[in-house]
Amino acid sequence: MRCIFLGPPGVGKGTQAEFVAREFGVPKLSTGDLLRDSVQKKTTLGLEAKGFMDRGELVPDEVVIGLVREKLRSAECQKGFLLDGFPRTVPQADQLELLLQSSGNSLDRVIYFTLPKDEIVKRISGRRSCPRCKAVYHIQAIPPKKNGICDVCETELIQRNDDKPETIESRLSVYDEQTAPLIEYYKGKNVLSELDGSGPVDDVQRRLLALLS
Ligand code: AP5
């Protein structure tokens, strides 16, 4: 499986990517997770990326492409991968195409998640994440057993800096301007499938499996 999850912030890509990666036994590459990890570790890349992320802007293409190129060339990605949050611009998509061509591979499918804007805002506003094991919750829809505490590793949950109300609108505009053009890009390559991201996680999961199988 060589697959991309595309769609606006907060639509549920990461939640479904965890499940699909387990189900199909492929590595999930989330550029958001990789970048947040670099920020947490205060690496040079992380320090460069932090400002862009906190403002809800995209990290420059060359930085993200470098990160993904290294991962895609690693042994664990040779039999397939699931890309969550990459590509996010046409230049990133072009670079991915070149990378795949150079190894004689191609994309199997791009899943485009959709959800009305008011639902997106509710999902992002209620998201809480574990800074340690990266588990993701939602204060209403997918709450942890103990309020504010991760079920998996008992760490205190946090709200992502870019999930604050003032940043959500700018992330959505950035998506419309820079990422939404990829919908036509992948339609043109006949690999795009649209997925209704509304409703409970299990319902979305069932629709997703039907598309992937
Ligand atoms: P990134 O981490 O990729 O953020 P995103 O695309 O904005 O996506 P999100 O993580 O916000 O949402 P999601 O769709 O994964 O939703 P989730 O499953 O968590 O990127 C962050 C930043 O990094 C970017 O702004 C940029 O700065 C930088 N970056 C990353 N990649 C880049 C790239 N390629 N190029 C340049 N810059 C890049 O779900 C959301 C919430 O809803 C959760 O609380 C979840 O529990 C809940 N939920 C999920 N499904 C359901 C459901 N069915 N019902 C109810 N609640 C649900």
Give the helix/strand layout.
Blueprint: E1 2-6, H1 13-24, E2 28-30, H2 31-40, H3 44-54, H4 61-72, E3 81-84, H5 90-102, E4 109-114, H6 117-125, E5 127-129, E6 136-138, H7 165-179, H8 181-187, E7 192-196, H9 201-212
Parallel strand pairs: 1-3, 1-4, 2-3, 4-7
Antiparallel strand pairs: 5-6
Helix pairs in contact: 1-9, 2-3, 4-5
The structure holds BIS(adenosine)-5'-pentaphosphate.
Query: H/E series, N to C?
Result: EHEHHHEHEHEEHHEH
Corresponding CATH superfamily: P-loop containing nucleotide triphosphate hydrolases
Biggest sheet, strands in spatial order?
Answer: 2-3-1-4-7
- Ends distance: 11 Å
Q: Which consecutive residue ranges, at least 5 long each, have pLDDT under 50?
A: none
What does the radius of gyration come to? 17 Å
- How many beta strands in the DSSP annotation? 7
Bulk shape = globular
CATH fold-level topology: Rossmann fold
Ions and ligands: BIS(adenosine)-5'-pentaphosphate
Main β-sheet description: 5 strands, parallel
Q: How much of the polypeptide forms β-strand, as a percent range?
A: 5-15%
Overall pLDDT metric:
93
Helicity range: 40-55%
Detailed description of the structure:
The chain has 213 residues and is an alpha/beta fold. Helix content is 47%, strand content 14%. It contains 9 helices and 7 strands; from the N terminus they run E-H-E-H-H-H-E-H-E-H-E-E-H-H-E-H. The protein is globular and about 50 Å long. The model has no long low-confidence stretch (mean pLDDT 93). The structure holds BIS(adenosine)-5'-pentaphosphate. BIS(adenosine)-5'-pentaphosphate binds next to helix 1, helix 2, helix 3, helix 6 and strand 6.
